[in-house]
């Protein structure tokens, strides 16, 4: 919520509006007085990394009455406030819409009571409302994610990872209860991201007799060598008759029937606290800036809107339509129309549920397929690779295929380091960072003959390559060698996995979210150290090759003063302007600075050069320090996003490959030589798409290992606007950011 407060405040000031912060929610709005304060640029400095909300939040009975709303209207008119941005759940947003609909009547009543003049009422005749959904449950229909959900998932996964180690040591079963009285999103995604053995969500109660089936499956898992069981239960879990299923009931059931040592952990309000994740900080910043634009562009006929996330775009939707669909979900659950409730939750929720059911327990294939697939990792390690391998192996086995895994990438394939795997060989892989298979940067052209020999030897008909730019380039080399080697006329698919996020054909690569969070956490600590010393500027170097995604998104997430990247050229004049900005900043109460530099952003303006420049120009005003984050950005446990994303991509890639294999299978052999049989799978806006590598070649800058167009460049303006209020919009319109400015400020595309 703090990132949203910061973005709304700074964007409001940026466009020339007066911005007021209302403390303690609707209670502060009703009480007025010191609860309504005008904000300046520095009012929201150094809050982006804080959990909770610095302006407070409170439930307010008075606002549910007309008398309370009358007092609230009086307080707004007193400050000439006619635009209200409300950050909260569907109850808070519904209250705001009621307030808006009554506004004219409330002003009329204030005039009649003599509390305001007719002139004042005329000047404040219209109240515009925009909503931002803040809810850890992700229970609001119309948006892919609500503010706070990703951070709550981080807290849950931290607990699950910690519990897993003790559960394995003691051979225990753990029943974890997570929040979600009416929505099972947190339970579902954490179950999918942890590979939980059993899952209870209110939208899909278990069938009658579930107790027998659950105990049978838990016992079966243990008999196959597993040392632990994880059961995740949403606090609102019910059975088919609507009777609550409690975590203690599940625990007692396991103890009585199986005799397993079982513990219950209720996570409770731990899920609401802690540092916000990078995703939440960027999401809130996007939404906050779009909210200001929505208020500025509102007309008397514009209905109250809510700013939502669709793919990687902020969009505006009618508030009450979204509230109504949200209520329809609860109504469907109350009326025991559970399948409809899951559909109403949205495509993503339904997709998550179906994938969880596919992967949680082994189901024998209906028949053995004639196809065999090999899975390998290529390039630098990235978090989420193991999640993708696990789901690909398991869905391939469900399809009846023979599944091989290859150690050490293309080099391992050339050396014949190929082995067949089963369902349980990939158990426990979901939460592990790096690459369990091992990965190398070797490209096929250096060992093509040996690769072809082993493809023939193991009769590999499908190749799933999980990796970065080398994976994409390697598959392209294999495709281009098809004319020379018939053995390479097989189905191939690339799952992009790299912290650099530089693979063409996708908006997000596996591992980039984990890397951004790792860089963000380091920068948070660096900023904290600077707050003690004062008058200090840190220059932090991030990885990413020529791609500036990591620097840009980390810069937004930590509130950096600048982030230098290759894609957004800069000159010595830009560096001079940044130094002057930091010099001015040191005269305020915020006496610290943070500058990010992508490792290959400029041939001559190196990290050392920037350090010397800033040190020299800031002499006597501030001193400088360098931090090179290095390989810590590649390590660590995958974030919930990367675990979930890797799991989904693994499933979708293998299902697509299975379909293609059927299409090109004839007379007992596979022959795939068309361009559409070798693709990169990726998320493009909101859709998972398969792009032929031969088509992507046309839009790739191979010299710098970059796609020619990158969506995240739209975020550059946001970074600069939120960092430095002295920058004028006209500078961007006349400069290189012209296309970005016009695109990002349009209503359809948003930030």
TrEMBL record:
Its cofactor is Mg(2+). Residues 1-294, 373-656 form the Phosphofructokinase domain. InterPro entries: 6-Pfructokinase_euk, ATP_PFK, PFK_vert-type, Phosphofructokinase_CS, Phosphofructokinase_dom, PKF_sf. It comes from the Eukaryota. It catalyses: beta-D-fructose 6-phosphate + ATP = beta-D-fructose 1,6-bisphosphate + ADP + H(+). Keywords: Acetylation, Allosteric enzyme, ATP-binding, Cytoplasm, Glycolysis, Glycoprotein, Kinase, Magnesium, Metal-binding, Nucleotide-binding, Phosphoprotein, Transferase. One of its GO terms (cellular component) is 6-phosphofructokinase complex. SUPFAM superfamilies: Phosphofructokinase. Pathway: Carbohydrate degradation; glycolysis; D-glyceraldehyde 3-phosphate and glycerone phosphate from D-glucose: step 3/4. Pfam families: PFK (PF00365). One of its GO terms (molecular function) is AMP binding. GO terms for biological process: canonical glycolysis; fructose 1,6-bisphosphate metabolic process; fructose 6-phosphate metabolic process. NCBIfam families: 6PF1K_euk. Catalyzes the phosphorylation of D-fructose 6-phosphate to fructose 1,6-bisphosphate by ATP, the first committing step of glycolysis. Negatively regulates the phagocyte oxidative burst in response to bacterial infection by controlling cellular NADPH biosynthesis and NADPH oxidase-derived reactive oxygen species. Upon macrophage activation, drives the metabolic switch toward glycolysis, thus preventing glucose turnover that produces NADPH via pentose phosphate pathway. This is 6-phosphofructokinase type B. The gene is Pfkl.
């Amino acid at each position: 919520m703090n990132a949203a407060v910061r973005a709304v405040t700074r964007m409001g000031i940026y466009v020339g509006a007066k911005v007021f912060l209302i403390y303690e929610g609707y209670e502060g709005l009703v009480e007025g007085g010191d609860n309504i304060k005008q904000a300046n640029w520095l009012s929201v400095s150094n809050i982006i990394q804080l959990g909770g909300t610095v302006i407070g939040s409170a439930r307010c009975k008075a606002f549910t009455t007309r008398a309370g709303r009358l007092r609230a209207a009086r307080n707004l008119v007193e400050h000439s406030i006619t635009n209200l941005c409300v950050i909260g759940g569907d109850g808070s947003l519904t209250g705001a819409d009621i307030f808006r609909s009554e506004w004219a009547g409330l002003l009329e009543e204030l005039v009649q009571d003599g509390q305001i003049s007719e002139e004042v009422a005329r000047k404040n005749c219209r109240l515009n409302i925009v909503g931002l959904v803040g809810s850890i449950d992700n229970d609001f229909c119309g948006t892919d994610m609500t503010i706070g959900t990703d951070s709550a998932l981080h807290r849950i996964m931290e607990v699950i990872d910690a519990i897993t180690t003790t559960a394995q040591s003691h051979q225990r079963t753990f029943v974890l209860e997570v929040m979600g009285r009416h929505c099972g999103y947190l339970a579902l995604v954490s179950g999918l991201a942890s590979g939980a053995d059993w899952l209870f969500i209110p939208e899909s109660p278990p069938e009658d007799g579930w107790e027998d089936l659950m105990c049978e499956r838990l016992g079966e898992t243990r008999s196959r060598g597993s040392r632990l069981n994880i059961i995740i239960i949403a606090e609102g879990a019910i059975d088919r008759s609507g009777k609550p299923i409690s975590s203690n009931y599940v625990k007692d059931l396991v103890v009585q029937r199986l005799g397993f040592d079982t513990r219950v952990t209720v996570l409770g309000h731990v899920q609401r606290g802690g540092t916000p994740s990078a995703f939440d900080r960027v999401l809130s910043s996007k939404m906050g800036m779009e909210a200001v634009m929505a208020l500025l562009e509102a007309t008397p006929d514009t209905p109250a809107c809510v700013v939502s996330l669709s793919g990687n775009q902020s969009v505006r939707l009618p508030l009450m339509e979204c509230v109504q669909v949200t209520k329809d979900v609860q109504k469907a659950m109350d009326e025991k129309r559970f399948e409809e409730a899951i559909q109403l939750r949205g495509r993503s929720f339904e997709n998550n549920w179906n994938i969880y059911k596919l992967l949680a327990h082994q189901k024998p294939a209906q028949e053995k397929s004639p196809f065999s697939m090999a899975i390998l990792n290529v390039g630098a390690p990235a978090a989420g690779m193991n999640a993708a391998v696990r789901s690909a192996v398991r869905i391939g086995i469900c399809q009846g295929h023979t599944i091989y895994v290859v150690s050490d990438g293309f080099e391992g394939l050339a050396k014949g380091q190929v082995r067949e795997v089963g369902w349980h060989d990939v158990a426990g892989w979901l939460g592990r960072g790096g690459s369990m298979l091992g990965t190398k940067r070797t490209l096929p052209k250096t060992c093509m003959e040996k690769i072809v020999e082993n493809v023939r030897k193991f009769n590999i008909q499908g190749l799933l390559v999980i990796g970065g730019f080398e994976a994409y380039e390697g598959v392209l080399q294999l495709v281009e060698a098809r004319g020379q080697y018939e053995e390479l006329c097989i189905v191939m698919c690339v799952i992009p996995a790299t912290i650099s996020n530089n693979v063409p054909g996708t908006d997000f690569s596996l591992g980039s979210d984990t890397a951004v969070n790792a860089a963000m956490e380091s920068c948070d600590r660096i900023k904290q150290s600077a707050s003690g010393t004062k008058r200090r500027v840190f220059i932090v170097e991030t990885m990413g090759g020529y791609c500036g995604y990591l620097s840009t998104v980390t810069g937004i997430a930590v509130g950096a003063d600048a982030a230098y990247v290759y894609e957004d050229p800069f000159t010595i004049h830009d560096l001079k302007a940044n130094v002057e900005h930091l010099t001015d900043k040191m005269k305020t109460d915020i006496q610290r600075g943070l500058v990010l530099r992508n490792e290959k952003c400029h041939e001559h303006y190196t990290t050392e050069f920037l350090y010397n420049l800033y040190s020299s120009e800031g002499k006597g005003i501030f001193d400088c320090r360098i931090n090179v984050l290095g390989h810590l950005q590649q390590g660590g446990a995958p974030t919930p996003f990367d675990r979930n994303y890797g799991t989904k991509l693994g499933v979708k890639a293998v299902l697509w490959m299975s379909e293609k294999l059927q299409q090109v299978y004839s007379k007992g052999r596979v022959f795939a030589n068309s361009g559409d049989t070798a693709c990169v799978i990726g998320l493009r806006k909101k859709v998972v798409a398969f792009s032929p590598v031969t088509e992507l070649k046309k839009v790739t800058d191979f010299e710098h290992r970059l796609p020619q167009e990158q969506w995240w460049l739209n975020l550059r303006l946001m970074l600069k606007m939120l960092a430095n209020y002295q920058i004028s919009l006209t500078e961007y319109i006349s400069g290189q950011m012209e296309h970005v400015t016009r695109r990002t400020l349009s209503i359809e595309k948003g930030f």
